[in-house]
Amino acid sequence: MKKLKVVIALLLLAPAFPLAAKDKDGGEAVVVPDVEMIDIPTAGILDYYGFMLKTRFYSGGGVQGGLNFGVQERLNLGASMTVDRLVGSDSPVKMRRPEIQVKFRFFDGGYYIPAVAVGYDGQGYYYDPVDKKYLEKGKGLYLVGSKEIGVPGLALHGGFNVSDFDKNYLFAFLGLNYTLEDKVAFMLELDNMFHEDDPKRFNSGIRFYVTPYFQLDMAVRGIGRTGEFSNGEDRKAERIAQMRYTTSF
């Protein structure tokens, strides 16, 4: 069991050791388009044969790892898994069930119309071991559009999602990011809108493009959040760090 945990930890932490990014001619590569922001997806996708490895550090010493593949020209498939209390001295360490991600971009956008993608993401946050569910549900089935607006580097992302197929609530999300010279991006999100019994979240963060293929995020989720979850736990802001390494086969 200890060996299994070590292997999983190495996979989750792998983006901390990025390789150099070069284009086919040996020069500096172009920054890979963002496929997601902090919590919300974008209409961006990995290229055919593209591959992304993601690590996310969240509250309580938890780590989330994810893999995403460009299996077809417009289709991405992936999976993620969280491990609670992996970092630090708290115990016991708990691995949660893997969740799947699928995204298909069916329209590349035009001068006035945004690029549009449909997808599914089952990865939630704050797992409740008693009810065996996430207190913050994953996106579930979603539709998202992305478009550069106003000035170069400023992009707007927005869409709708159904995260709970028992209640069939329709939620909405909206995000804005500004990328400065392919070096740093500033991100704002308003997520989980429309239903007061599952309140909206405001997230903010900064993304550093350490290399064209390696990104480091520092963000705060649920800014100004108050109240309680359904199991009585307090809702509060959460600081996270994320790393992504993207390459191709």
What does this structure look like?
By secondary structure, the protein is mainly beta. The chain has a single domain, classed as monomeric porin ompg (Porin, Beta Barrel). The protein is 5% helix and 49% strand. It has one helix and 15 strands. Strand 11 and strand 12 form a beta hairpin. The protein is globular, with a radius of gyration of 18 Å. 32% of the residues are buried. The model is unreliable at 1-14 and 16-28 (pLDDT under 50).
Quick gist of this model?
The chain is mostly beta strands and 249 residues long. The chain contains one helix and 15 strands.
Distance between the termini: 31 Å
> Rg from C-alpha positions?
18 Å
Q: Helicity range of the residues?
A: under 10%
Which stretches of 5+ consecutive residues score pLDDT under 50?
1-14, 16-28
In total, the number of strands is 15
CATH H level: which superfamily? monomeric porin ompg
CATH topology: Porin
What is the count of DSSP helices, taking H or I runs of 4+ residues?
Answer: 1
Order of secondary-structure elements = HEEEEEEEEEEEEEEE
Strand order of the largest sheet: 1-2-3-5-6-9-10-11-12-13-14-15
Count of folded domains? 1
- Major sheet summary line: 12 strands, antiparallel, barrel
> Which structural class best describes the helix and strand composition?
mainly beta
Q: What overall geometry do the principal axes of the alpha carbons give?
A: globular
CATH class value:
Mainly Beta
Quote the average pLDDT.
Answer: 86
CATH architecture: Beta Barrel
**Relative strand content:** over 45%
